[in-house]
Amino acid sequence: MGWNSWDSYGTTVTESEVLANARFMAEHLKDAGWDTIVVDIDWYDPTARAHGYNANAQLILDEYGRQLPDPERFPSAADGHGFAPLAEQIHAMGLKFGVHMMRGIPRLAVDNNLPVKGTPYTAQEVADLNHVCKWNPDNYGLNHNHSGAQAWYDEQLDLFASWGLDFLKVDDMQTPFHSAEIAAYHNAIAKAEAKYGRSISLSLSPGGWVSTGYTEFLRDSAQMWRISDDLWDRWEDIYQQFPRLARWAPFQTTGHWADADMLPLGHIGLRAERGADRQSRLTEDESRTLLALWCMGRSPLMVGGDLPTSTSETIELLANPALREVTAGSTNNHETVYERIFERWDDENSYLGDLVVWAADAAECADGTPSAHSGGHYAAIFWTGDRDYELPATIELQSIVGLSQRNDPWTITNLFDDETNATGETDVTGARIEGEGEDRVIRGTIPAHGVLWFALDPR
């Protein structure tokens, strides 16, 4: 659970903006589980600009071609300090610090044929000029048949670890799937962790069409891996994540996460790649759907909006303790229903939307923290249609709590508002239990593009 500068600032975030978001997180969101601050792409490009990348940029590099922060945007990095002073300030707030990196070696290092530290090799010897990113011009690829390629990553990670890095997002890794690159970064991180005695989480991007067949390799190599391309504040983007998260949910394990991408919530687009300066265009119901779906699918939560200037409503959503509780403290997360709903069964043109139901069991978190609903269950009933939808008597209670518990008394708690009816039979926001035995069902009205997200606790 963290903040990433991409959705707000693209390639141009400054030290003061990073610190402002870190202070806000520490004061307002840390207690709810948010604990990581990530500086995204091109922090080493002094000519970085909104809406694109610069070819032939004179990147800030050390004598071995390793990237250094632009001291104009990050004044504390001057005189070779790198990100160490910024990391120290963020750690003092009780938070973790991360950066973005592109795979490969800077073109500028190759053009100048800089030495690879600790080896007799040069950048030109270890580079692969044909193995390049299709959308970012900063780097050449690496020739992993040459031993100097691993050495390049080892020394880059040694520098990053010396700054106190906790998190590394590496891009252009999975589309197409570069297994040699992923393995090389994993090996470099392992060496840095052993030398400096601190763990570094590896996050892989982007994620278009990533196969679940790579799961074991990914678990062995990284803590996070994207399962989609960039996601923005459009309902269409959220809608497409339903089948992806359903596909990946059975493969989620604590510490190794399929990542449905950043949350485009709050104040975004200040100087970002897409769109103008704006508060997120997602409605409140769409924002709730996004959060509930990510949590039920156990995706990492990395918010993209500038926290100090986001709306109070956004911050209230992010401060909800249920986000961490469900993501970290649930098991058996799975989609139980996905049905296309028509107003008339015999009229294909009367399509209204999709009804999607998720269920999970409440469990203890990996750190031993008990769930507020241990022994109970979580459920989310989503509706993708453009107008409110009254649930018919089709969502059986037993499909969530199990056949053996269908007759037990249950309390329903709304996970967004934490409202529970004293009788346990009706939640004031609309979800309710009706019927008896195998005919007990969940009823309620779901808003357009919305969700009923609730916990069921035995009474």
Automatic annotation (TrEMBL):
GO MF annotation, one: hydrolase activity
Pfam families documented for this protein: Melibiase_2
Keywords annotated in UniProt: Glycosidase, Hydrolase
Keyword field contains Secreted: no
UniProt keyword Mitochondrion, yes or no: no
Family: Belongs to the glycosyl hydrolase 27 family.
Cross-referenced PANTHER family: ALPHA-GALACTOSIDASE, ALPHA-GALACTOSIDASE/ALPHA-N-ACETYLGALACTOSAMINIDASE
Designated name of the protein: Glycoside hydrolase family 27 protein
Annotated organism of origin: Bifidobacterium hominis
